[in-house]
Amino acid sequence: MKKIFTLMLVISLIIFILAACSEDDTTNAEGKIELDFWTLFGGGDLEYMETIVEDFNNSQDEIYVNMPALRNSDYYTKLVTSVAANRGPDVAISHTSKIPELRNNGLTEPLDDLAESEGLDFNEFTENLIDGTELNGNHYGVPIDTHPFIMFFNNDLASEAGLLDENGELLMEETPEGFIDFLLKAKEALPEGDMPLALSNAGDDPFRMWWAFYFQMGGSPMYSGSIDSPEVTMDREIAIEAADYVRSLFHEHEVIPLNLADFYQDFQTGSAMTLTTGVWATGIWETTDGLEFTARPLPNLFGEAATFGDSHTLIMPVKQDTSSERQRAVVRFMDFVTDHGTDWAKAGHIPAKETVVDSKEFKDLPYRSEYAEVAEYAAFPNKTAYGDMAKTIYAQNLDLAWTNRESTEDVIDSLIKDLENLVKK
User: What is the pLDDT of residues 148-159, one digit of tens each?
Assistant: First the structure.
């Protein structure tokens, strides 16, 4: 009996030690809570985020954040696989449009109770952004930015074409006809080899332009209803009208050359007067020697203020047996990152916290204040579990319109059918 008692005591002690070790895993050898932070960033974005993480690590002695470099191309696959295997990070970057899919698969934690305990106030964020992270009354992400679709123009080329007023503003009427007239004047005035507008005729950027004009025309949501079983509610006629307008820029008016090898390079080297793309390009242009440019919101041509937008958010992936102490550390880190939105804005993004956008430090940054207002009306993808797959379907179908291989009516009909098939049970 004594041996059995001794054995039971040893087993109990082992269980206690293992449990203690499991809890002690919260801290590293220096006694700090060590968090793994995954991001999809590369290039300049990665460098700015590395600086913010380093500043956080140096700001206190309780938490240390690791940020391994990951390949953007398969980021979400790695994230989903690792979390499902309970080997995921403590905190990760997700696009707002991806959160419904991650939450629908049970891979992200709600943040409201933890945010309240750590003093992270969702009311400090731009309403349009924070709404995108809310599902069924809970927030599943903390936005750090908006990165909408905007317009850039080359000051020298616009001046050469006689399209700037005495204040350096574009001489352009913000109507469908006025925008085309502006680009046609540039086409006539610019030297041979220079172009009025640089834009790819395939992929994300022309899709984003179509999306912006669709919602400027008052288009209805692409999807409505539940997250996992939505109904396609795209307005077919408006979708066709928006596609006709974008297609006309390539073909009828020929103000965008087809099959550009690198439309970013065309703008960067001074061969394009205007370019439409995301705000992340700001950081590229301002570090380009000799490039004098202006950044501004995409023109509101059709009445409703709208453009394509998405947001980078910080999420807390589900992690079995994690401690409440570790989770609170994650929220402290999230709050620090959003408070340092001005540092993140150096990449071109619009900070998510209104207090940061209103700060003198942010307003003193060049260019950003010119388009910061766009965060308030950017049209985000609908909250569905099919966001990534739907985006691919949009671009694949619409590419056929930009290259004039199919009529816009056929393209939109195929697009609607493919979106409906995507969500069929």
Answer: 999 999 999 999
